[in-house]
Amino acid sequence: MKLDRILCLVRIALAGMCLLLGSRVETQAQYSAVVEQQRFAEILKEMDDNSDQLIDREELSRFLKKNADKILATLEKTGIKASVVNKEKFDDFLDQETITIFNNLNPNAATHLGANEIRGLEAQRLDPPFSGTIKDLLPVPQIVVEPQPVTQKPSKTLIETVGPYFRIRRSFLDDQFIGRPATITLNHYGSQDNALKQGRAKTNLSFQGAIAVEPFGYRNTEVGMGSMLPLPGFRREKLWFVWTPVLVYEADVSTDSNASRNQIIHRVGFQGTLYTEEVTRGLSGHNFAMTFDYTTDRDYKSALLGGTLQHSLNIRALGIGEFLPLWKVGRLEPYVSWRPYWGLAFADVQDPGNNETLQKNSDYTNGLIRGGLELALTERLLFTPEFSFYKEFMNKEEDHLFYSISGRYIFYQEKDRQFSLELSYERGEKSPDFVEQELTKLSLGIKF
Known about the structure:
Blueprint: H1 3-20, H2 33-47, E1 55-56, H3 57-66, H4 68-73, H5 87-105, E2 112-113, H6 118-123, H7 158-162, E3 166-169, E4 182-189, H8 194-197, E5 203-213, E6 219-226, E7 237-254, E8 262-276, E9 283-296, E10 303-315, E11 324-325, E12 335-351, H9 356-359, E13 363-376, E14 381-392, E15 399-414, E16 417-428, E17 437-447
Antiparallel strand pairs: 1-2, 3-5, 4-5, 4-17, 5-7, 6-7, 7-8, 8-9, 9-10, 10-12, 11-12, 12-13, 13-14, 14-15, 15-16, 16-17
Helix pairs in contact: 3-5
């Protein structure tokens, strides 16, 4: 199939998506932008100790400890007069309360809270035996909305305008919270890498990253009564599906066009989470990603048409879908978060181009099991081991393994924008070529 026919199919798919999503139905009322920002500013005065215009776990924990008397006072409504006997244990309880609040506010767990989470934060209830909400601990809103002439409204910057609709990270298929950043990299190839076997240079530059566009934003749809799994022991409860359509440009390319890193993927599809209204420690969510894929190389000589299906669970008792604290030494509070994935990638090779592996295959279907773990010693120093296991269901029907480990230091962070330096080691074979790779990388990371 020629490239113009492929692009025509993509345009038809986009047009169909726009027709299906033409009208956006909101499931709940929201603060106006002005009221939301004013209330957020009031809450920042109470919690934002480092003046970064965000609320992190440590700041919320300190806020709860500062308001310990108000929390104890909620017991008086039940006729109990209480006081703190062991402050250390009570502080540990409030630390766990903080983690619970953060995990409740997002099915995938967030590290910071911004203005759009304010309503959810205020509505969070204190765990038994205490009662009331976080809003009860905050000052009474002092919101005054004054009409302003249109000419006095400040103009938004380009990033503020398009920012809510764009995401940048290493791969679209990674968890957007613990996924690694997109990278501009200086590569040094090891002795087992296919590039060296062909006598090429040991060092080059590469880019690996995905730009995902969410043109309509997330929407929350009530699914109805059901269970997370149709098995005995899983009770029926109210289910919701939060989802968004996506357009993705994903690249893994190198300055050496003949090296093993030479792939560009255009994706059209959606991602979402099916979750229970009541947060539980057990199975509380299914995460999905489904895309139609057009895969090529940086010169657009090859052409593959196919798709990707991926699924992952939220099980907080196992630490899947939340950040788990490990230990506490002074002000050092390391945590870990991890997520397994499994899925399927398939494609029909329309034109193999100069790719010798694709010249031998007319199509392929590969199963995938992978996992990523993020160990944070601090909020800026992180270690991330990852692995991917591939199973060829066609062609050679072989198994392949790819693994990596990286250390990353975040040297700049503003709201959800993040820049970092990363040192990593990678080895193994990746779909669809399954060419042996071994390299050490020094990267500039960008996550948005």
